[in-house]
Amino acid sequence: MGEEKEKDESKTLRFSPKLLELLAKFQEIELEDVDLEVDELELWIQPSAEVVAPAKAVTPIKAKPAKIIELDFKPPVMEYPGKIVEVKIGATKSEGGTRGKTVTIGGEKFPAYYLFEGMMPHLPVLSLDVFDTKIPLAKPVKMHVEDVLEDPAAWAKRSVEKFGAEVVNLHLVSIDPLVKNTPAKEAAKTVENVLQAVDVPLAIGGCGDAHKDLEVFEKVAEVAQGERLLFNSVTLDMNIKRAAEAIKKYGHVVIAFTAMDLNKARELNRRLYEILPKEQIVIDTTTAALGYGLDYAFTVMERTRLAALMGDPELQHPMSSGTTNAWAAREAWLKMDPQWGLRELRGPIWETVTALTLLLTGVDYFMMMHPAAVKTVRDTVAELMSTSKADASKIADWVTVKV
Amino acid sequence: MSMFEDIPVGVGVIYEGERIRKPDMYVEFGGPDIEKKFELTKVKGLDNVEDGKITVVGPDIKDLKLGGSYPFGIHIEVAGKQLEPELEGVIERRIHAYSNYIEGFMHLNQRYDIWIRLGKKSYERGVNSLQVIGKVLQRLFKSELPIIEKIQITFITDPKKVEEMWVEAKKTYDARDARARGLKDEEVDSFYGCTLCQSFAPTHVCVITPQRYANCGAISWFDGRAAARVDPKGPVFKIERGELLDQSKGEFSGINQAVKEKSLGEVTRVHLYTAFGLPHTSCGCFEGTAFYVPEVDGLGVVHRDHKGVTVNGLPFSTMADSTAGGRQVDGFHGISIEYMRSPKFLQADGGWSRIVWMPAALKERVKDFIPKEVVDKISTENDVKTVEELKRFLETKGHPVAQRWEAALAEAPPAEEKEEVPAMPLAAVATMPIAGGGFKIILKKARISAKKMIIRTVKKKE
Amino acid sequence: MPKKELSPIDVYKLLPKTNCKECGEENCMAFATKLVNREATLQQCPPLLQEKYREAFSKLWEILKPPVKEIVIGSGERAAKIGGKLVMYRHEFTYFNPTAIAIDVTDEMLEDELLKRIKDVENFTYAYIGQNLKLDAIAIRSTSNDPERFKQTVKKVIENTKLPVILCSFNPNVIDPGLVVAAKNKPLIYAATKDNWKEMAELASMYDSPLAVFAPNDLKLLRSLAKTLLEFGVKDLALDPGTVPNEGLGETISNYTMLRRSACREEDELLGFPLIGVPLVVWSNSKEMLEISSWKETCLASMLISRYADLLIMHSFEGWALLPTVILRQNIYTDPRKPVAVQPGLKMFGAADENSPLLFTSNFALTYYTVASDIESGGVTCHLLVVDTEGLSVESAVAGRKLTADKVAEAIKTTKVEEKVKHRNLIIPGRAARLSGEIEESSGWKVLVGPLDSSGIPKLIQDLKAQPPKA
Q: For a disulfide at A364, which of A91, A103, A318, A371, Cβ 3.0-4.6 Å?
């Protein structure tokens, strides 16, 4: 089956008659992509002529396969010398706290969702952000919590009951000397109120001022002794010794937060190890929004997890992500040209894609805001971890699907 | 910072870059108009230092004339179990930074070049005595360098005393420099590893030895030693020397062990003094790179600041890409400029006698350390622009690498053999001479695939 | 990951060493360096293409070839290169050939609908950090299963767009006429399966077209088919292990991961081909709302981009759904070794005028966007001078002497900000405090050291308004 130069539309080329006819007409015929099957073919080689000979006279031209060549596939399973520690957040009554349930993260022995190597022991945890004072929020987020913005306990309750938060992140932003400079005692009271309002474990966020945060953390740690709160966070410019001691004394756990820098993360952990056992530390190497540095965050996290599994003793912790940072992206909250759709869809999907991308690096703890994003991540995790066999027949005919 | 509540002006990083202009200054210490000035740090025994003591020998600030310039000396004495004389220089360099943290107080340069100014505003707010400066410095030194257990400071403004102490200070500087230059890698029991710039180069560790500076050019072995002492949990850590496995190439078992651990097995052996085989790795902030020029079997060197291309037509940035990222790439090697001044510089490869090209500006900087026999035989961008010109230059000047060419010529280049070609769908053409009357090839039950098949009518020979 | 680090010297040894400059480089060593950095290709060296260097060429080809083959779909200015991956993880080097995104059309669409859709796809663009993010191909699905209909549709598409096309049908009798019409444009044939592989292979060989292989959730079959097709003589393959959504997601992600690792780490040449993902599968559930399906499709696409898909076939044309996909793709395919920089210059925020404050920052993209975001969300009206620090953050640039007083003074001059602003007060980043005095000297402006973190900018500006600095 080939095509002749004069655009003959005939499907098959009968060798003898037609060709001879053509040869009578033309001096030379050039055929492209010729496939000949012959019973017998004779080639005459004349003296002093250039000969076309097969390069390897020994090897015959390979026959094309008539049926599928059956081969095996061996899953490329690897061994990892390292393992991620498990960190528990929250404490039930019998454990010294007042939570109805606790969560445990970490314990991985393989990279994220390398299910061909094994199943992870714990699912990632989805937590929602709650603030202790009214803060500006993007419209798609605000509409869900507008009426509880000034009541952290009610806001926390809604996060759990309506949006399925497994942990509540209470950000005590009002303690910032440049905001309300709320004293530690009062902040601790807010924490108590929220603890009373919900049954799930709590994470406590500071305001970013190293001195005030430390002061407040120490107070809150003391007041909430036994609750195994997750403190968000300790950083390199804090008095690490004091912070770690408070965490240790009152039995809490902490997020070690650094810039997107593996070495800084290692350094902070090294200092924390002087006081805290590894099982009380979670790592956060900073999350940047999709389009505004997500690739850096992604790569640092992927590297952190891989290095930990390859044996790096200073990075073997579950990872945390401030996925709410996705809302810093202009595209998430800005009113754009109609081509780019409504903010009500764009914003939440921005947070979702940020989360899903980092999910694949092995993030164990997500801090999020929009209910739709939270739901999608939850559903995705459930799908990823589903033990029922994938039914390929469902997509066998995708090409003909009518949309 | 709360530890400075009693200080009448601000203290913090924010004031680091302040400049005080002449009309704004209350008083000037040292500087270009004054001949004798110095700052000196000495490590003393714990019993010889009175912690917190501040002495002013001569007039204090409030006794000086507004707008005047004065000879000046700062003498700091420190003591601590972990301190040793080798760390004096490291501590001394910090006087500059800490002084600048004081609002309205400017400090430039170091050693016998210091230039200090106090601003009028700060004077009016209460910085009218060197006691204030002393307090701030002591607190900063102790909080930033906890290995300093005791610190006492003497400010000297009496011109005669300044001159006396200046002589002592100069002796100390000279002795330090001599010791630093004389210290050999084999003589110390430990080196220092630095992972400061590992962020995008996770397999990289810089090994800092007395004779091989850190690639970034910022950290000497002494700095490394001080940093590891001060902050054992920080990015600079001690590496036990281990056994010396290869003197010429610079291989130590301790270094191999350390890089193996830190790079999680990616890099297992390092040769310190060579650009070939298993060179020391680089991250991304090295000051310069050595690169192989195969046409002349020599090495070129180029530094980051060099604009434009090198003799091989590539700029610094392209070659930097070859060696960056913590990889061991044969023939491409990141280095610091200080390493070029070291006697161990690329010693396994022939040292300076293997260097064929470098930028003129760089040559100027390290000229004093290039052996007299080769210094004029090393070309710069002013001498040659291409590899061909380079070859001629080296030949004319009688550069040592030229001798290597003769040795290489003795080895015949491998002949281009016609080997079996990997089978491709179309068989390659081979011309065969035909003997005699020709022959027939009969193919039975064959299948022929051809991209092109030409059927040509052949005119009968008459 | 390359087993041994490839040195330009290894490459140089195999080159002709003529220093003839025909490749565009000064000499063979320079060319060797560029080859290793993947900034040049072997084809650029004319002497190397000669018969006598055949062996050297093959050796070079072997050591330089990517574990995942690069194949080209389409022709002309919008031909799409897919695959060509050197590493599994982007941090090991960098990724090449961003995931190609193909949007579908069917052969049952009305003509004007069809034409509009392909034009929209061809013209889709989003300006982002100095690049224009675009879509890459049209996937023509035969839902009619009618060869003539398919042929007509393919013809229309080919005539009306420069984009590469993917011919989608499992029926060789449908593909054949489509291929006849589209052959010159080098389409991708989708796809060979265990039932039609022979016919598809013949079509692919005949037209020298790249051929997709579809073996849903059966890697053994996929590998067997790949071997069979290669033996048959098909050269360019693209593998589709099946995008099974919902409870199949875990295995799907696992399959893509296994395939990429097999190619890159185990060096399995049979699996060293680009991977195809089909987020479009979510549209099989026709009962769902448009928004839900689009949402799900985007989520699935994002995961496949991160997990090794070299080509995606998608359906939704909703802007809000496509935007995150194209931006994520751009992000993942950024060279992690090179800092991302924004254009230096003068930016205005709000209705900034001649009395508005002036701040400066570095041109590292991350820094710039963080600063800009803090300014915008704080509602600050000001000018922002973006100084060229070669893509380094303020802190790194100060330490690395890329941010100097002279650079700042130069930026002030080049942007002519002195004509736009009446005052001479410059607010500098807290992390550049060290340069405050020098900047005053170089620029002649009065310097105010700002906060260490840009989140403090709104407060600073507020305070300044209350107590303006002396002029």
A: A318
Which domains does chain A show, CATH number per domain? Answer: 90-105+113-384 (3.20.20.20)
> What is the DSSP secondary structure assignment for residue C4, as one 8-state letter?
S
Domain hosting B168: range is: 2-181
- Backbone φ and ψ for B170, nearest 5 degrees, come out as -60, -40
Say whether A129 sits in a helix, a strand or coil: strand
Q: Which residue has the tokens 């100069």?
A: B170
Strand partners, B54: B153
A389 inside 8 A of chain C by CB = yes
The domain that holds B338 is classified in CATH as: 3.40.1470.10
How many domains does the structure of chain B reveal?
Answer: 2
Contacts of B183 (CB under 8 A, 6+ apart): B210, B211, B221
Query: Apex CA B48: angle with CA B47 and CA B54, to 5°?
Result: 120
**What DSSP line would sit under A26-90, residue for residue?**
-SEEEEEEEEEEEEEEEEEE-TTS-----SSSSSPPPPPPSS-------------S--PPEEEE-
User: Could you tell me the fold of the domain covering C8-64?
Assistant: 3-methyladenine DNA Glycosylase II; Chain A, domain 3 (1.10.15)
CA distances from B329 to A70, B278, B326, C33 (A): 41, 8, 9, 11
Q: Is residue B449 part of a domain?
A: no
**Interface residue A61 vs chain C (CB under 8 A):** no
The answer to whether residues B64 and B208 belong to one domain is no
B249 and B346 in one domain? Answer: yes
Tell me whether residue B421 is in a domain.
Answer: no
| Among C15, C20, C28, C33, the residue to mutate for chain B (most B Cβ within 10 A) | C33
* pTM for this prediction: 0.82
Q: What does CATH list as the number for C345-466?
A: 3.40.50.11600
Total beta-carbon pairs less than 8 A apart between chain A and chain C: 229
Chain A adjacent subunits, 3+ CB pairs under 8 A: B, C
Token pair 């079997």: residue: B297
User: Which residues neighbour C259 within 8 Å (Cβ) at sequence distance 6 or greater?
Assistant: C219, C222, C239, C241, C271, C275, C308
Residues B140 and B192 in one domain: no
Q: How many CB atoms lie within 10 A of CB C407?
A: 22
Residue B440 belongs to a domain: no
**ipTM of this predicted structure:** 0.89
What is the spatial distance between Cα B107 and Cα B171, in angstroms, rounded to a whole number?
A: 23
Instruction: For the domain covering C70-332, report its CATH number.
Output: 3.20.20.20
C414 Cβ neighbours under 8 A, 6+ residues apart: none
CB A367 within 8 A of CB C250: no
Query: B176 and B259: one domain?
Result: no
Interface-testing mutation among B109, B309, B332, with chain C (most C C-beta atoms within 10 A): B332
Tens digits of pLDDT across chain B (462 residues): 568 889 999 999 889 888 899 999 999 999 999 999 999 999 999 999 999 999 999 999 999 999 999 999 999 999 999 898 888 988 898 999 899 999 999 999 889 999 999 999 999 999 999 999 999 999 999 988 889 999 999 999 999 999 999 999 999 998 888 887 788 998 999 999 987 765 556 678 889 999 998 887 778 898 888 888 887 888 889 999 999 999 999 999 999 999 988 888 888 999 999 999 899 988 767 889 999 999 899 999 999 888 889 998 899 988 887 777 778 888 999 999 889 989 999 999 999 999 999 999 999 989 999 999 999 999 999 999 999 999 999 999 999 998 888 777 765 455 444 444 343 333 333 334 444 456 677 777 677 777 777 767 665 544
**Same domain flag for B104 and B142:** yes
- Which tokens go with B277? 């085989």
CATH of the domain at B24: 3.30.1650.10
Contact yes or no for A43 and B441 at CB 8 A: yes
